[in-house]
Amino acid sequence: MTIADTDTARTHWTGTADAAERAQWDAVAEGVADQLAVDALARDRANAQPFAEKRLLQESGLTTLLDPAELGGGGAHWESAYRAVRIIARRDASIAQLLGYHYINSANIALIAPPAERERWFRASIAERWLWGDSVNPVDPNLTLTEDGEGFRLDGFKRFSTGSGVGEALLVNAVVKGGDRDGEFAYLVLPFGHPGVELVDDWDHLGQRLSASNTVRYHDVRVKPAHVLGFGTDEPLQSFVTPGIQLVFANLYLGIAEGALEQARALTVARPNAWFLSGVPTYADDPFVRRLYGELVSRVAAVEALADVVGREFDAAIGRGADVTAEDRADLAYRIAQLKVVSSDTAVDVANRVYEATGASSTASKVGLDLHWRNVRTHSLHDPVDYKKLEVGARFLTGVVQPISLYT
After folding, report:
1. Which of 93, 182, 213, 285 could form an S-S bond across to 375 if both were Cys, CB 3.0 to 4.6 Å?
2. What range(s) does the Acyl-CoA dehydrogenase/oxidase N-terminal domain occupy (predicted)?
3. Are the C-beta atoms of 300 and 350 separated by less than 8 Å?
């Protein structure tokens, strides 16, 4: 089958992942996670642009996991991609974010590009193993895109541009000002090092320090027709980018929670003796410690179960392609919002409360248990989880569907 054969379906994704596919890509992700775990804390503290980590993702095949098999991609499903993000987040949430955003950004080939142009984009991205960064922060409407001959001129800036510091392809969103396409929402793809694009190495935050989420400034940037991926429409399929990225977030938070529990368990089991009032020989025998882990492990298991189900639901919905409806999209967004609520709240709580079991010694800088909390505390502020709770509550009570945006 060729890309042209999928034109009426609008995407090449069909069906859902089977056990063999999940096992294959889980193993790949676990191998990458093991390599990242060796020096995750040291790299976090160095706060350098993650070029080496990006190459690790590319060489593993994870960056082409979702791309069409007939063009050299992995031919896998979204569930496998989300599981990969989750697995890597257990060890290095920054690089998991880099990968998850790449999946969503590169998916715009299928969601946005005209059918006749998709194969060109896929072939370039697969052959050159592009990692896709983005410069689309909707709370920074500070870009000016004006018609200029056959192309455009781009000026302004965007903060929080994940992957921009290391990605071969930079996805940019801007509204056209003037000309025949005045007011249209444009999707642009600029190569790394494009003239006039200034990458500002200013990402120095509490967590997610290696996500390359810099500020990008655009100085009279020439945008040729070949750089235009497409333009926004009212087609429901195009808007899957928002529930898609929110599902990345949920799996990112879940992976962080799982990583925090795993490290905390090792620290707890290794603690000598026990609290003098406990009457038991070790901290692992302490009933209060066991109760704490019983609660946290159970909550994380529940989030994992929901994440697995919703990941398959995403595949089923996006697999409908051009036949997907606005109601399908609303139902999916509602389910993902539920997952976003429980994954965010659970991960922040887990990364905080594991200290109650690991004790004061685990706050030593060399231990690095704080990395999980710093990462989830930073990224969970991406968009307020309270508004996701309102979204779920409104839909449950009155059937209200939130207007489509880059956050809903």
Report:
1. 93
2. 21-124
3. yes
Kindly state whether residues 327 and 358 are assigned to the same domain.
yes
SS3 content of the chain, % helix, strand, coil (to 5): 55, 15, 30
Tell me, yes or no, whether 262 and 391 share the same domain: yes
Domain count, the chain: 3
Distance CA 99, CA 132 (A): 9
| 403 is a domain residue | no
The full DSSP string for 67-115 is: S-GGGTS----HHHHHHHHHHHHTT-HHHHHHHHHHHHHHHHHHHTS-H
Tell how strand 143-148 and strand 169-177 pair up: parallel
pLDDT, tens digit, 9 for 90 and up, residues 288-329: 999 999 999 999 999 999 999 999 999 999 999 999 999 999
């060729």: which residue's tokens?
2
Residues 124 and 9 in one domain: yes
Q: Are 86 and 252 in contact (CB under 8 A)?
A: yes
The two structure tokens encoding residue 103 = 């999946």
Q: What is the pLDDT of residues 351-396, one digit of tens each?
A: 999 999 999 999 999 999 999 999 999 999 999 999 999 999 999 9
Do 85 and 123 belong together in one domain?
Answer: yes
Beta bridge partners of 154: 145, 221
